[in-house]
Automatic annotation (TrEMBL):
Residues 80-299 form the Tyrosine-protein phosphatase domain. This is Tyrosine specific protein phosphatases domain-containing protein. The lineage of its organism: Eukaryota, Metazoa, Ecdysozoa, Nematoda, Chromadorea. SUPFAM superfamilies: (Phosphotyrosine protein) phosphatases II (SSF52799). InterPro entries: Oocyte-zygote_transition_reg, Prot-tyrosine_phosphatase-like, PTP_cat, Tyr_Pase_cat, Tyr_Pase_dom. One of its GO terms (molecular function) is protein tyrosine phosphatase activity.
Length: 354
């Protein structure tokens, strides 16, 4: 009895996991107005300068920065690392400072305060992996998420056949219902993605209703870019599609969940277009390289090849031209240069696709 009262015995209740605060890795700069039109032209135009070889070397150097990045996963107590069983690919490390902690994902805030959750696709119990679909849905409910962006098809081609993705958390067809743990996800409807009467056929737009065991429900909008394959860039007219999709999802005041299979590559391209543009529009002393280096701090292994980095820089020029109604010739000439490089054996199409 004395031992019990003095708590000398080693029996104790299991401590509940406490999530640490997510650290915002950028300074607040939303109060700074955009540059004048003259300076916006200078910043945008400077990205287009250089020969084919100059640009290719630049993208290779930036890719090397991604590959050589120190990928530290440690953080002081009481932070607890995500179980490795929740990693789709264990070589893709997780920055602990802005980690979502319950999922393999990171918070990325743009200068204008749009918050993105860059995450991998949820998983089911297969081999050494554990089911993370419940964690995925729980985060949507907890953070009152309104928008989910899925980049890629539900049945990607693996080189031999089309294979259903592991970790599907919704039914594609209207009226479909899937039960995941204590959650029920119903596909209420699927409709075309229309902007001013123009149908963007690469985007499927769904309304999903998530209901938990307490009968609390949340209705979200999911946008799926069905033709954006892994390790590839969007098909022709992809910049306009991404630009219009970005405008639509930014209307939400809640965090925007963005995922592809591994939460890198496509996910970071989509987020990167908005992130880099939002910084370059106020910093006349920054280059694409400066903003790119800040972006890759947020999520390790962000990009897979030089072709993706080239597509991103051309896309930032597109966003700047489109947003501020600058001269189209800047984008057109830069995009032409990039496409010529992709068709050659020495440019991003040759290196980046390998």
């Amino acid at each position: 009895m004395i031992c019990w009262c003095q708590q000398w015995l080693c029996f104790s209740k299991k401590k509940k996991k406490v999530d640490c605060s997510i650290i915002d890795l950028d300074e607040k700069e939303d109060h700074i107005p955009p540059l004048s039109e003259d300076l916006l032209v200078v910043v945008t135009g400077s990205m287009t300068f250089g020969t084919h070889f100059d640009k290719y070397e630049q993208w290779i150097r930036l890719l090397k920065k991604v590959m050589d990045q120190k990928r530290d996963e440690t953080r002081e107590y009481p932070f607890r690392r995500l179980s490795v069983q929740k990693y789709r690919k264990r070589s893709i490390k997780l920055n602990p400072l802005n980690s979502l902690q319950t999922l393999h994902g990171n918070l990325i805030r743009t200068r204008t305060n749009t918050i993105f959750y860059a995450t991998q696709m949820p998983m089911e119990n297969v081999d050494t992996l554990v089911d993370t679909r419940i964690d995925f849905l729980a985060l949507i409910m907890k953070d009152e998420i309104e928008i989910v962006v899925m980049l890629g098809p539900t049945r990607p081609f693996d080189g031999k056949q089309y294979v259903a993705l592991n970790g599907m958390y919704f039914c594609e067809a209207t009226g479909g219902i899937v039960s995941i743990g204590s959650y029920i996800v119903e596909t209420v409807k699927e409709e075309p993605f229309l902007i001013n009467g123009v149908h963007f056929k690469d985007i499927s737009m769904r309304t999903l209703k998530i209901t938990d065991k307490k009968k609390q429900s949340r209705t979200i909008r999911q946008y799926q870019y069905t033709t954006w394959n892994e390790k590839e860039n969007p098909p022709p007219n992809g910049y306009e599609t991404v630009y219009e999709l970005m405008k639509r999802v930014k209307m939400s005041q809640k965090p925007i969940m963005v995922h592809c299979t591994y939460g890198i590559g496509r996910t970071m391209l989509f987020i990167g277009l908005e992130y880099i543009t939002s910084h370059l529009e106020i910093h006349d002393d920054w280059t694409f390289k400066d903003a790119f280096e800040k972006l890759i701090e947020k999520r390790y292994c962000s990009f897979l090849n030089a072709g993706q980095i080239g597509w991103l820089e051309v896309g930032v020029v597109y966003f700047m031209v489109r947003k501020y109604e600058l001269e189209w010739v800047m984008f057109e000439e830069f995009n032409r240069k990039y496409l010529e490089m992709c068709q050659g054996s020495w440019g991003p199409g040759g290196y980046g696709a390998k």
